[in-house]
């Protein structure tokens, strides 16, 4: 049956509205602009871009039950993705943070390795309690926050001399933290479905912002410091809960991809973003402090669940690898285990394909 011209036009308009938020206008869309298959053994977790120092830090760890892989941080040129060197002996490393003022870097490992960001030489090691996981730099106090799912939830380290200045009990398992640069720190608490607000000067929790049942298992966090907006990226359901950072009031929620493990905000473009294990990078546009929309869901690669922003190029860097199909289950096969560093075992998926570890750069 023939359709009238008017009906066709209506259909085209409806289709365009239906995909809004999935694809950006032609010429303005985000896409993979660079891929580097750098290989190397070991699991992986948080990738970190030092935009000022032009280095990309990639943690690689053997994880539980894999003593053949030496934990380390592989370092790459942020512009070319060419290898620059390695920071060795970072036991069970999950991530890296850099104090740009002192030029000191820190690995989220036990012990924490403090290193020179220019030479990559180790300066000292810092034994810590808990289980170091996420890590970030707090600029107002020039301190490094090392996050742990068990107490103490935060170990705070002086970025200048590497001394431990205190610990913080958050009342739950932290995933990612952000600072507004004015003494306020926000850390999402995965097992409590809230965001802890910390006074950076006193290192005390001042309040918790509950997500109000809008989302649970927050795994990523972004902060618009200028407009005081928090973007809390959750697992179940797969949504971004957007909050007022001053009082914790929920503004709105928006859908994301599934399997989030990191997020952020780019003040240059006024966009929040989150990376998901399903192979998507969700971009949320802040058109005003009260208006937000999903601008695009960029196709990346499966397993690319952590990300970092290069604020000088506005590119978002992600890491992942290819995996073989899982072996058929047998009575002699060991039970599946979970590794936070991203190297799957057991029935979840097969072994990492040798040489397949990849860095992705997403931009316009």
What's the gyration radius in Å?
A: 21 Å
Largest sheet geometry? 4 strands, antiparallel
Query: Total domains, how many?
Result: 1
The CATH topology is given as Methylamine Dehydrogenase, Chain H
* CATH 4th-level superfamily: YVTN repeat-like/Quinoprotein amine dehydrogenase
Mean pLDDT: 89
The proportion of residues forming helix, as a percent range, comes to under 10%
Tell me the β content.
over 45%
- What's the helix count? 1
In CATH, what is the class? Mainly Beta
Q: Indicate the multimeric state.
A: single chain
Q: Which series of helices and strands comes N to C?
A: HEEEEEEEEEEEEEEEEEEEEEEEEEEEE
Helix/strand-derived category reads mainly beta
From the 3D coordinates, which CATH architecture would you assign?
Answer: 7 Propeller
User: In whole angstroms, how far apart are the ends?
Assistant: 42 Å
The number of strands is: 28
Regions with little confidence, pLDDT below 50 for 5+ residues: 1-24, 330-347
Q: Largest beta sheet: what is the strand line-up?
A: 1-28-27-26
């Amino acid at each position: 049956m023939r359709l009238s011209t008017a009906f066709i036009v209506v259909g085209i308009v409806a289709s365009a509205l239906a995909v809004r938020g999935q694809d950006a206008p032609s010429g303005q869309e985000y896409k993979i602009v660079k891929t580097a298959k750098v290989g190397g053994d070991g699991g992986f977790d948080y990738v970190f871009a030092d935009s000022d120092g032009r280095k990309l830090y990639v943690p690689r760890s053997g994880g539980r039950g894999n003593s053949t892989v030496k934990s380390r941080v592989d370092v790459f040129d942020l512009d070319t993705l060419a290898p620059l060197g390695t920071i060795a002996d970072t036991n069970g490393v999950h991530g890296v943070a850099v104090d740009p003022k002192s030029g000191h870097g820190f690995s989220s490992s036990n012990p924490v390795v403090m290193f020179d960001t220019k030479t990559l030489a180790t300066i000292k090691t810092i034994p810590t309690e808990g289980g170091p996981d996420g890590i970030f730099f707090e600029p107002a106090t020039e301190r490094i926050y090392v996050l742990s799912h068990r107490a103490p939830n935060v170990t705070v380290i002086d970025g200048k001399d590497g001394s431990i200045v205190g610990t913080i009990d958050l009342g739950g398992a932290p995933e990612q933290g952000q600072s507004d640069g004015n003494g306020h720190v926000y850390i999402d608490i995965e097992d409590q479905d809230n965001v802890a607000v910390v006074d950076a000067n006193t290192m005390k929790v001042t309040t918790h912002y509950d997500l109000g049942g809008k989302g649970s298992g927050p795994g990523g966090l972004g902060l618009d410091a200028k407009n005081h907006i928090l973007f809390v990226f959750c697992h179940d359901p797969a949504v971004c809960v957007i909050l007022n950072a001053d009082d914790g009031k929920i503004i709105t929620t928006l859908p994301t991809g599934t399997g989030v493990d990191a997020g952020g905000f780019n003040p240059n473009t006024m966009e929040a973003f989150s990376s998901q294990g399903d192979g998507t990078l969700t971009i949320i546009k802040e058109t005003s402090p009260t208006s937000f929309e999903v601008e695009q869901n960029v196709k990346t690669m499966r397993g690319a669940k952590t990300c970092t922003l290069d604020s000088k190029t506005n590119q978002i860097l992600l890491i992942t690898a290819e995996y073989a199909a899982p072996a058929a289950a047998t009575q002699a096969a060991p039970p599946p285990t979970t590794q936070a560093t991203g190297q799957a075992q057991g029935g979840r998926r097969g072994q990492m394909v040798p040489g397949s570890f990849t860095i992705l750069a997403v931009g316009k």
